[in-house]
Design goal:
Elements lengths: L13 H8 L3 H13 L3 E4 L3 E4 L4 E4 L6 H7 L4 E11 L3 H6 L8 E10 L2 E10 L17 H9 L5 E10 L2 H7 L6 E11 L2 E11 L3 E4 L10
Parallel strand pairs: 3-10
Antiparallel strand pairs: 1-2, 4-5, 5-6, 6-9, 7-8, 8-9
C-alpha cells in the first residue's frame, strides 16, 4: 500500500522475508496466502510471487458494498451526486422485493467516484418498511450499507448478484466520462434481511477499472 513493492515486482524469497519481518516460514506463507486471496499477489509456480495492480477488486465470497471494496484498496470514495425519493418502481422491482405491483419504494441514485474519477452509476430500490424518512438523508452518505447499519441498524445478510456486460450508452458515457460503447459491468443485486427481500439495485461499473473476484470452495470433498 505504501508503494515499496510496485506492481509487477516479485516479492523477495521466503527466507529473506523471514529475516525482514522476523517471523516464521509458516507466518510468511499464511500472509502470502491471505494477500493472494485479497487480490494483492499472484503466486506463479517456478516464477515467484508477483505484485498485482491493486485495482478495485470486490470479493464476492463476502457481502460488501462497492465503496467498502474501494476504500479497502486505498481509494478515496466520494459521490458526484445522489438523489433519494419515493417512487412506484418498474414491475421487476416490485417482483424482486415481493411487493404488490404499484407499491412505493425508496429509490437512491448515485454517481460514485474513486479518487475523484467517476467509476459507477448505482440505482438502488429499497423496501420502505424499516427506513422511514430516508429521503431526508440525501447527500449525507457514500456507503449505503454502512449508513443503513448506523442509522437504521440494518445489516444485509445475503445477496444474489447477476453480473453481465453492457456497452455504455450516451448518458452513461457523459456521466462516467468514457466513450459511447465502452464496456461496463452491469450488476443486478437482490439483497436480503434473512428471508426478507430488502434491496434491488442496478450498478453500471467501468469494466477496466474494476474487477470482481469470486472465491469458490467445494464443501465436504476429500481426496
Amino acid at each position: 500500500l505504501d508503494g515499496k513493492y510496485k506492481t509487477g515486482m516479485l516479492l523477495p524469497p521466503e527466507p529473506e522475508l523471514e529475516k525482514i519481518f522476523q517471523v516464521s516460514r509458516t507466518t510468511i506463507r499464511r500472509a502470502i496466502s491471505m494477500l493472494q486471496s485479497e487480490g494483492y499477489l499472484k503466486v506463479k509456480q517456478g516464477h515467484g510471487t508477483e505484485i498485482i495492480d491493486i485495482s478495485t477488486i470486490q470479493k464476492l465470497n463476502s457481502l460488501t458494498s462497492l465503496p467498502e471494496s474501494l476504500i479497502e484498496k486505498g481509494y478515496k470514495v466520494t459521490i458526484q451526486g445522489d438523489y433519494i425519493q419515493k417512487v412506484i418502481p418498474p414491475k421487476y422491482v416490485n417482483d424482486a422485493l415481493n411487493q404488490k405491483e404499484g407499491s412505493e419504494v425508496y429509490k437512491i441514485e448515485q454517481i460514485q467516484c474513486a479518487n475523484k474519477t467517476p467509476i459507477s452509476i448505482i440505482v438502488s430500490f429499497l423496501a420502505p418498511d424499516y427506513i422511514q424518512g430516508l429521503e431526508n438523508h440525501s447527500s449525507k452518505f457514500v456507503d449505503l450499507y454502512k449508513f443503513l447499519n448506523t442509522q437504521y441498524n440494518i445489516v444485509l445478510t445475503t445477496a444474489v448478484d447477476n453480473i453481465t456486460a453492457i456497452k455504455a450508452d450516451f448518458l452513461d458515457s457523459q456521466i462516467l466520462q468514457v466513450p459511447v460503447g465502452e464496456p461496463l459491468l452491469y450488476n443486478k443485486r437482490i439483497g436480503y434481511l434473512n428471508d426478507f427481500a430488502f434491496e434491488c439495485s442496478i450498478a453500471k461499473i467501468i469494466a477496466d477499472r474494476y474487477e470482481y473476484r469470486v472465491h469458490l470452495e467445494q464443501k465436504g470433498y476429500k481426496v
